[in-house]
Amino acid sequence: MQHGARKKTQTMADVAVAAGVSKSTVSRAFTQPDRLGPETVKRIKNIARQLGYVPNHTARALSTGRHGNLALIVSDVANPFFPPLIRAAQMEADGSDFCVFLGNSDEDPRQEDRLIDRFVSQVEGLLLVASRLTDEQIVQHARRRPLVLINRDVPGIPRVLIESATGVRHAIEHLAGLGHKHIVYVNGPSSSWANRQRRNALKVAARQHKLEVDLVNAHVPSYESGRAVVPQILDSKATAAVAFDDLTAQGIMTGMAERGISIPRQFSLVGCDDVLGAATYPSLTTVSNRSDEAGRAGVSLLLDMLSGRMAGDTRLVLDTHLVVRQTTAAPAQEKPKGSPSGQPERV
Amino acid sequence: MQHGARKKTQTMADVAVAAGVSKSTVSRAFTQPDRLGPETVKRIKNIARQLGYVPNHTARALSTGRHGNLALIVSDVANPFFPPLIRAAQMEADGSDFCVFLGNSDEDPRQEDRLIDRFVSQVEGLLLVASRLTDEQIVQHARRRPLVLINRDVPGIPRVLIESATGVRHAIEHLAGLGHKHIVYVNGPSSSWANRQRRNALKVAARQHKLEVDLVNAHVPSYESGRAVVPQILDSKATAAVAFDDLTAQGIMTGMAERGISIPRQFSLVGCDDVLGAATYPSLTTVSNRSDEAGRAGVSLLLDMLSGRMAGDTRLVLDTHLVVRQTTAAPAQEKPKGSPSGQPERV
DNA sequence: CTGTTAGCGCGTTCAC
DNA sequence: GTGAACGCGCTAACAG
Hints:
347 residues; Rossmann fold; DNA-binding; homodimer; 13 helices
């Protein structure tokens, strides 16, 4: 047989004639088998399989309004924070026979909006992770389709929040306990709920422990941003830094190493999200993350909404803790900057 | 306003009456603006936007047979090999206004098959990455829909292959050049095309360089598998190992460290796929990977097929190279096991 | 240039 | 229990 020869798609009508019944009967055989002769159902299903008939998802959706699809939109698929979340969401949806569209907003609100428009007419619900849209935009979209947020806190919209505040607080206590007096927080994206949350928690905790706090902006959470921001960190008198996420922290480690500054001997560093495991050297002290649970819970919430089992203002909070590894220590006696001491420092 | 009050979805008909034209005209305003009065188009589009009208993707698909969707199925979303590929594929599709379904087969052929059945009636094309299906199954699916393979070589099916063989060959030369005589290859999944390719390339190159090769099986490419397989590696007399992928290699590094074996002083290690960057310590020597390019190319190929611009037996090969970092060195003089020798060797 | 008509494949009233 | 007719929202022939 010639390649490229595509098999004609079988329809309900084909099955109907082959079985000597009407289309309605075939339809019922698949959707309401109990309202049909058990013998008929078996016969029809058999013939259908023989013919290689697969129900047309699209036609069914048009007719019923149920697509059995949902959309998952994240800001950056390649950011290691997301894959576990995506995976969990995907598999949770799968368990209920839902298909999931994946969208990558690339940190751009307009792109995110475009994607939603493209998806909205073929999904039953939307799952937005770390959305960069405004509250108003989100509310608008939520009026069109059931909508669940992950790591974004908009009153009235069902949401799953990873409470990194807890972990950040512990990080501050940890640093204060080691003797640090002055730290810097490296901001992530300004429109990020997670970033605001972390920064605020950090400020509050720092005040309690009488730590001085400087702020520095990385904007985009990435290795490169972290590396680029090192000079600003060093300009402050801080002896430790908490970074928006692990990627940024990893970049900072590299930047520090390039300047011959040893972590944690001369400078302490804490990341966030625990996406790197113990892969860095020294292994990174960081705040735990439960993104897979968040993904699973988000989808579960959405499915509940779709089946009407849900109402009101759900707000699911997953808390976190500090994972102490090897990038934090007591501050050096000397200033971190100009110390060309003769000790062999690892890069 | 009560929450949960969903806004009624606007249809073409609504726009039509509001604009005082027929549905067809509205339709054309969106699909063939040039066949309409430029004034009319503008007016209609305005009204549409005002009403919050969004074309119904599903209805359009049913009518035209064009869904504007494609399915991307991978074996494990959370494996760091895939996210860049997924991201690139997603954005490439996005550029042509295609939506992409993401499927996670979880390394299970039956699950992969189920996913395809679920997707097939609502996509125009399928993109299978590292498929675990049999050749026959793949050919069957390809008869129903345009289908592109990534890292799977089935004659007659368009495919994009990351030729890690090149890089593996260089790895062997590199190890041989350092003086290694006996190495082990740590297998990945047995149904993986990439694994067979790497193992074969390794064997051939090893023979040329007169290296002895032992095989060890990790089956699942993961950190844990790598760690678990360390005892077997040490049972051989090998002085170096090439692992199926970086994850496995990272696990091996941990396992070695736990046994007090220093890499690369007492044992050399090469990974594959370069997904960890320089994040490990010591930073991992590995074979480069171009998964993002593969993703982009795969989608591009698929889109070409859909627009009829393509025929025949496309086979796109992306080659790779060795990235030498710090986990390879000359073999120790003594046996790798019990040697507290004092030599400070850095690469 | 624009309106009319007829489906796309399926679920769902209604009758029988 | 089962069949016939209508409509989901849109595009693709045809007119005009």
